[in-house]
Amino acid sequence: MPIKLNDQNAGLRDHELEYIRPLAENAFRILSENTGQGHEMLGWLDLPHTYDREEFARIKEAARRIQERSQVLVVIGIGGSYLGARAGLEFVKGPFGNQLHEKGVEVYFAGSNLSADYMRDILNIIGDRDFSVNVISKSGTTTEPAAAFRIFRAELERRYGADGARDRIYATTDRAKGALRGMAEQKGYETFVVPDDIGGRFSCLSAVGLLPMAAGGMDIDRVMEGCLHACELYKNPDFLSNDVMLYAALRFLMLMKGKQVELLASYEPALTMFGEWYKQLMAESEGKDGKGLFPVSANFTTDLHSIGQFIQDGSRIMFETVLWVEHTRHTLTVPNDPVNADGLNFAAGVSISEMNEKAMKGTLLAHVDGGVPNLVVTLDRLDDYTFGELVYFFWKSLAVSGYMIGVNPFDQPGVEAYKKNMFALLGKPGYENMREALEARLKQ
Ligand code: PA5
């Protein structure tokens, strides 16, 4: 069953979508004809047709080798070089995938922060078990993954020697240039490519995401099949029957109505990291030139007990996009309890999934009544195929919506600001002039 978009609770009148239609169709045309801003970064648009089959086979072979030699894979990367793989693994294997050992190796992600405790904890979790590393960085000089790579590489070299470590390190980086490319060639690591025409947040179905996903036990053939299906389905130029264009248009209308925040709400903890991936995609693509919706994500019903009050009753700044999953992996039923101290016997015999559905429907109506319009994106189930489909749905819709608001959805000039300050404060060569001024400001 393909992904379904439902806008019945968006609070829109029929003519509103009709009036916005030419803008959406124009953005869709610009994207399809490769004529918009940033069109040189559209490698993802036809990816399921154009991806490198030879590299894909090597990815599967490397994943098999990792599974054979190691119990743990440490994936080192940040932002676009991190979020998609983790989102995919949790989407399919659930939040406890590492503990369940149903398929693939345990996968831990490092290099996405500068926390010593976090890295030490991963080393402790590995203990004396065998591990491999997949370091992912287009540039090879991003501070967080560079620091983590030094630490995990040193541990590999300590345990297995330089030659043994070489056979356990897989580098995903630029095809020809950059610090990691140079180091990989010098040390003899097996390498995979971050394509030149695909930005970080669009890279999770390239080697960037595919190797960790395959090593962790995902079926990457099915991922690419789902992506292919979406790629073909959303080529449809008919506005009203193309959910990619409709979702972009709906988001645009929300922005026009004064909404500033899009809350991606899911009811499965397995989608928590998907929410993180979605936030980067939306924020880095649209949040520029003083424009864009601020993306946030929440996991219900958990977060209804924390930020639920604000959503229902606080500043009316948001609309919600609900990610709803029709079929769960397991079925559980609420048992009867003769004592009924918690008063829950009214639900005895009811499945947990049905309770979740009633919670979703009740929440939707309450939030709509509270002035929070709701869009619903329904998925059949959380499997490899649907992950590929959903990723493509959001990529393409976001690209259309970026063009609708008049930004280049494929650059991220704002990400550099904090990096420059951090380099200056750390004394990186080339940033000396900034350091004094920053330190003076910090002393004030
Ligand atoms: O989307 C982006 O471009 C960023 O999130 C990058 O992926 C992130 O900063 C990591 O960069 P690199 O792969 O060069 O280490």
Please give a handful of descriptors for the protein shown.
five-stranded mixed beta sheet; single chain; 50% helix; 17 helices; five-stranded parallel beta sheet; alpha/beta; binds 5-phosphoarabinonic acid; 444 residues; 13% strand; globular
Radius of gyration: 23 Å
Number of helices: 17
Oligomeric form of this entry?
Answer: single chain
Biggest sheet strand order reads: 1-10-9-7-8
Largest sheet: 5 strands, mixed
| Structural shape | globular
Number of β-strand runs: 10
Unreliable sequence segments: none
The succession of helices and strands, N to C, reads EHHHEHHEHEHEHEHHHEHEHEHEHHH
Mean pLDDT across residues: 96
Helix share of residues?
Answer: 40-55%
Backbone structural class:
alpha/beta
Distance between the termini: 59 Å
What bound compounds does this protein have?
A: 5-phosphoarabinonic acid
Percentage beta strand: 5-15%
General description of the model:
It is a single chain. The protein has 444 residues and is an alpha/beta fold. The protein contains 17 helices and 10 strands. The chain has helices at residues 14-32, 47-50, 53-69, 83-93, 97-100, 116-126, 143-166, 179-187, 207-215, 220-233, 243-256, 272-286, 308-313, 352-369, 384-405, 416-426, 432-443; strands at 4-6, 72-76, 106-110, 131-136, 169-173, 190-193, 261-266, 294-299, 318-327, 374-381. The strands form 2 sheets. It has a 5-stranded mixed beta sheet with strand order 1-10-9-7-8, with helices on both faces. Strands 3-2-4-5-6 form a 5-stranded parallel beta sheet, with helices on both faces. α7 (143-166) links the parallel β4 and β5. α1 packs across α15. It is globular. The model has no long low-confidence stretch (mean pLDDT 96). It binds 5-phosphoarabinonic acid. 5-phosphoarabinonic acid binds next to loops.
